[in-house]
C-alpha cells in the first residue's frame, strides 16, 4: 500500500504472492469521508513439484516462492549442467532453471603399476546411476582403486604411504606416476663360526652361501635366501670340526692309531703268518670329508703257517690265484741239494716241492708250492 500524497492509496501484493484484481487504488472521498473500495487479491505463490532430473536425487521440501531445490547426480555419473539448483520464481510460479540430466562416466579397469596389486573398493549399486551394477560401479566416476606393493614378491612401500586412485569426471583415473615400491632388504647374512659366507646382494631373492672351512663339517655348501619378511631363510648350520669314524677293518690285519681328527693317520700291519701285497701303502689318513684315505695293503693268511726254513737261504712269498708260492734263493757261496730238501720236508704235508732250478754255483733257486688241498 502506498499513498500518492493527495488522498489515494495503491495496493500491491507482497513478494511471494500472486496479485489478482483490476482496481488497485483506494481514494479518500470527501462526501462519505471514507475510502473507496479496491479490487485486489494476493495468493501465495506455489510452484508445485520441482522438475525431475534424470540420474539425480533432489533435496528441498518447500515449493513456494523463493524455495530452492538442489540436485546431486547418482553414484557413477556427473552433471551436464553447470548449475544443479532450481528456484521457485514468485512472479511466474515456475521453477527456474531446469538442470540437464546426469550422465554416466566410466574409467574402465584401473591402470597397472609395476610391482603393485590393485583392488577396487567394493560399492553397492543400490541407488547408483541407472544401468550400473556391482561390477561396473567401482570403475565409474568416483570409484576408488587401492594399490599395494606386492609383498609376496618382496616389495614394500615407504612407511605411512598409501596409494589410491580415483575415477575422474573426464573418464580417466587419477595419475599413479608417484606410486613406488622398493625391494625388501635383509641386511648382511648372519655369521657362522668357522665358515666363509659369500653374497653379492641383500635384497629379496638374493642368495648367500655358507661354506665351512677346511677341517669342519658339513663339507657341502649351504644356501640361504632373502625372503619377503626381510630375513635370511635356510637350514640351521654350525660348522663342527671334522672327525672320522674308527678306521675301517682290514682283513687279516691290525690297525694302530691315536686320533680320528683330520690329518690323523692309522697304520695297518698284517697278522702273521701272512702274505703281504702293496705293503708300502699300509697307512691311511683322516681326510677333510670325514673319510679315511684308501689303503693298498693286502694281507693273505697262510693257512699252513710260514714255509719251512732252509739253512743258508732266503725265502720270498707270492700268490697266484688260490696258490701261494715260496721262492727260495741260496745265500752266496751255497748251492741247492734238492734231494736232501725233499727228504727233509716230506713230513710237511702242506708244502710240496714243485720243481728245482739249479744255476750258477753261487746262486741256486728252489721253488716250493703250497697246495690248498693238502692237510
UniProtKB/TrEMBL annotation:
Coiled coil: none
Keyword Repressor annotated: no
Pfam families xrefs: Sushi
Sushi domain residues: 45-104, 184-241, 242-301
PROSITE patterns (alphabetical): SUSHI
Disulfide bonds: 212-239
Record's keyword terms, sorted: Disulfide bond, Glycoprotein, Repeat, Sushi
Name listed for the protein in its UniProt record: Sushi domain-containing protein
Record organism: Elysia chlorotica (Eastern emerald elysia)
